[in-house]
Design brief:
Helices cover 7% and strands 56% of the residues. The chain is mainly beta.
């Protein structure tokens, strides 16, 4: 026992020394570390902790959830189950469904539908991540990889709905579909048409690519199909090819129309280049651009060029015509600048463009026979007094005579009125304190030429230039508290840069004119004054009457004007008979010639208006309302004491009113001549009353009526929506209404008779609430200048639209000229809203502009190239 005890003690002692030596050796090798049993245990603990890899927790964000029935957390299966009206919000996605299972060990989410007591599926899943929304039957989604498998998915991208049997989502940017139906119909459950793609690939916000694809209409397959298809899917403007429309024309052969390329240059402007080509050699090019900047400006630019070939080369009927048209519309936002403004409205081009264009039919501009343009800039300098400056370039073109008038440019500058004798507080009383003067300068450079000489050196040979300076001095005051008096003098100095001398040429036996280029000027002045007042006459009825009172307002005015003779600016030449003829070298200049005869005239005018005070039964307070019986009823004439003959001017009469709550506009007028006619029908300087032919002789008269009525006038919705097609029609030179027909842009298939704000939501038959509108215009002109007693104009124009049935609309424009005994321009328009499709037909059955056009196609801009149209254009030789 003692021997064993000694051995045990020795063994423990040996182990202790051995351990000390080992640690001493380690301590020498690592002088900076001093270890102890305590340190050893800490070191071992740290090594164990570092050696074990920390498992990453799945939940990386806040999970928001709720369910109607229950929420169950299974720690053993690592699953969270939400049942009945379940909702789950986690990171950037949102899920709503009948049941949701979150497996945070496998990093998967499953969502499915539920069956109700009748066995019908309800509470279909709703999955949203970012802006992508999917509504399937069920979905299985891996939050780590982003992969998902979706059964019966329904999603919308832009204008397109996609409904696929099975979808596989590889990641956030790639989805594969099997048997996917895509359509632009609003009814995704039962669309009236769809395209069935057996295999397809979808990249959100980028593209949708399909394999073999067939078209179905009401679930009936059609022979229309393509081996593959590509659709750009982007919420931003993207550049791309515009597919042309094929067809056949009777006089130009086969064609490809409206094909080209769209350039999405910026968020502020774009560019579309389109073209047409015909097999007989005709072609057309168009460039269209729209631009806008919020709170600054917006506008559009269009350039069209057409090279039209008629007939066959080598035959007598062969001809070749080049046509062009430039349009520019620019408007500045009112918030852009308080002191300056820039605006443009340009319609410039060939006179026959709208008559012979391949793609545009605009009868309104043809009947108007004018094209006009204006580009203007104005600025106000906030000084004391204010200084206003404006500059403009204008263009006016007669499409019948091909005469073009240009102003390049016109500038005007003026200083605001100055009251030199007014008090500092601004209150002006009496004659002297109301004395004011103003300075205005206006310059013009005007060119009158023909279309053939346009942009050639010859157009500047007949250009006229001039600058005028005017300083009017005026004052106004009252006398006897009832009469307003205004008086003033004016001074005008005119500068011109070309004059004309006249002489008789015995060789040609004609009076010829010689143009002299150089500076010249003349000065004119005059005096004017006038006195007027306002007289009220009221007749009051009994309180029980519907009409409570009638008030007649009269505004008589007497004016006097004096302008001396400016004979110093006149010269003479001798005619073939030896007579001296007075002429001014300023005749034919831009500012004209000063008057040769002195003017010393007095003028009379009487303005009348008639209004009634009517009891308003619909007013809850019992207040009456005021209505106008006659807006105006005016007479005017003048007498020139200095005239050698015909001192009394014709008496002019005009009037107008609005009736039936401003639905009916009535305007009328007449001219009465106090002088008589001789047997040959020529006017003589003798009063008619002196020859026993009455006080005056009516030389002309006119009356016009305009009546607008629609079903909206009998309902609550009376708002008028903007029609882009009408705006384009006005810019082309047509009218705002469609009395002369609705302009047709055959390159734009989106034109519609239906209002875009009303998406044809009417489903049931109309019950005495059929939408309609009607416009009636009548014009009558009587001429009796030389006892001809002729009705020169007597025409009735009608236009309107009516919904024949739900989503069926008809429009018409027609009229009759009773003077010429014939129909005016007649157009019939039909349109059918086919949900996602649109079908239209328009026809002009008679006249030189007769044509017809049929169109059926998808309304969506994404699939607008899926269409069929047939047309017959007017004969260009007759236009």
């Amino acid at each position: 026992m003692s021997t064993k005890l000694i051995h045990i003690v020795f063994f423990i002692f040996f182990l202790s020394i051995g351990n000390s030596i080992v640690y001493s050796q380690n301590e020498k090798k690592t002088d900076s570390i001093k270890l102890s049993p305590t340190t050893l245990f800490k070191a071992n603990d740290s090594i164990k902790k570092d050696a074990v890899k920390k498992k990453k927790v799945f939940i990386e964000g806040i999970v928001k959830r709720k369910a109607k029935d229950y929420e169950r957390l299974d720690q053993r299966k690592k699953q969270l189950t939400l049942y009945n009206q379940a909702e789950l919000y986690y990171q950037d996605y949102e899920i709503k469904s009948g049941i949701i299972v979150l497996d945070y060990e496998k990093n998967e989410i499953y969502a499915g539908r539920l069956k109700d007591s009748t066995g019908k599926y309800t509470q279909y899943p709703y999955f949203k991540q970012g802006e992508t929304v999917i509504e399937p039957d069920s979905i299985r989604y891996n939050t780590k990889t982003g992969k998902a498998k979706i059964w019966k998915s329904k999603t919308k991208q832009g204008e397109m709905f996609i409904n696929a049997e099975i979808s596989k989502r590889e990641n956030d940017s790639v989805i594969f579909f099997k048997k996917a139906k895509f359509t632009t119909s609003d009814n995704i459950e039962d669309p009236e048409y769809y395209f069935l793609a057996y295999k397809s690939k979808f990249v959100p916000k980028k593209k949708f690519v399909t394999g073999l694809t067939h078209m179905y209409i009401y679930n009936v397959p059609t022979p229309i199909g393509v081996p593959f298809a590509f659709f750009p899917m982007s919420d931003k403007n993207t550049s791309g090819v515009i597919i042309p429309t094929p067809g056949q024309s009777n006089d130009r052969g086969y064609f490809l129309q409206n094909g080209g390329y769209y350039f999405a240059l910026s968020d502020y402007y774009d560019l579309a280049i389109l073209g047409d080509y015909y097999t007989n050699g005709s072609y057309a090019l168009r460039a269209e651009s729209m631009y806008a900047k919020k709170y600054k400006f917006n506008g559009s630019v269009q350039f069209r060029y057409e090279n039209q070939v008629f007939g066959e080369k080598g035959f007598p009927n062969y001809s070749k015509t080049n046509l062009y048209n430039i349009q520019w519309s620019h408007s500045q936002d009112a918030k852009a600048s308080a002191n300056s403004r820039f605006a443009a409205s340009v319609n410039f081009g060939s006179s026959k463009y709208f008559r012979q264009s391949i793609n545009i039919i605009n009868v309104g501009s043809n009947l108007n026979n004018t094209m006009s343009s204006s580009v203007s800039y104005s600025k106000t300098f906030p000084t004391v007094p204010l200084i206003n400056f404006s500059m403009a370039m204008t263009h006016n073109q007669n499409t019948n005579t091909r005469v073009v008038n240009l102003t390049l440019p016109t500038f005007t500058a003026s200083v605001d009125r100055i009251f030199p004798f007014a008090k500092e507080d601004g209150i002006k009383k009496g004659v002297f304190e109301n004395i004011n003067f103003q300075y205005t300068i206006k310059g013009d450079n005007r060119i009158n030429t023909t279309e053939d000489l346009l942009f050639k050196s010859g157009m500047f040979k007949e250009a006229l230039s001039g600058i005028s300076h005017s300083i009017p001095i005026n004052t106004n005051f009252k006398i006897f508290n009832f009469f307003s008096v205004s008086t003033g003098v004016s001074y005008t100095e005119s500068w011109v840069f070309n004059t004309f001398d006249k002489y008789y040429n015995p060789t040609t036996n004609k009076v010829e004119s010689v143009r002299n280029n150089g500076f010249d000027s003349y000065r004119t002045y005059g005096f004017s004054t006038g006195i007027g007042t306002t007289v009220y006459g009221t007749y009051t009825f009994k309180e029980t009457n519907k009409i409570q009172a009638i008030r007649h307002i009269m505004r008589p005015n007497i004016s006097y004007g004096y302008t001396p003779s400016f004979k110093q600016y006149y010269d003479t030449y001798v005619d073939p008979s030896g007579n001296s003829i007075n002429y001014s070298r300023f005749d034919g200049t831009l500012l004209g010639a000063p008057s040769f005869q002195m003017a010393n005239s007095i003028g009379f005018s009487l303005d009348n208006s008639l209004e009634a005070k009517v009891r308003d039964d619909e007013n809850p307070k019992g207040e009456s309302k005021k209505i106008f019986l006659l807006n105006q009823f005016n007479f005017s004439t003048s007498y020139n004491f200095a005239a050698t003959s015909y001192k009394l001017s014709p008496i002019r009469f005009n009037g107008g009113t609005q009736l039936f709550e401003n639905k009916l506009g009535l305007n009328f007028g007449a001219i009465f001549d106090p002088y008589d006619l001789n047997e040959e029908g020529n006017r003589i300087d003798e009063y008619s009353i002196n020859n026993g032919n009455g006080l005056v002789r009516m030389t002309s008269a006119n009356i016009s009526l305009n009546y607008n009525l629609s079903s909206r006038d009998f309902g609550a919705d009376k708002d008028k929506k903007k029609d882009k097609a009408k705006e384009q029609n006005i810019q082309n030179g047509g009218r705002e209404d469609d009395l002369f027909g609705r302009g047709a842009d055959l390159s734009n298939s989106n034109q519609t008779l239906f209002e875009k704000s009303n998406k044809s939501t009417q489903k049931e038959l109309y019950q005495f609430q059929i939408p309609w509108d009607l416009r009636v215009a009548y014009s009558l002109t009587y001429s009796n200048d030389r006892k001809e007693r002729e009705i020169t104009t007597n025409s009735l124009m009608l236009s309107g639209n009516i919904d024949l049935a739900v989503k069926w609309k008809m429009g018409f424009s027609s009229g009759y000229d009773f003077a010429r005994k014939g129909l005016s321009y007649t157009q019939l328009r039909f349109e059918r809203d086919l949900e996602s499709w649109r079908m239209s037909f328009s026809i002009v059955p008679v006249g030189i502009y007769n044509y017809w056009n049929f169109f059926i196609g998808i309304k969506s801009s994404m699939l607008k190239d899926i269409k069929w149209e047939k047309r017959k254009l007017p004969d260009p030789n007759l236009r």
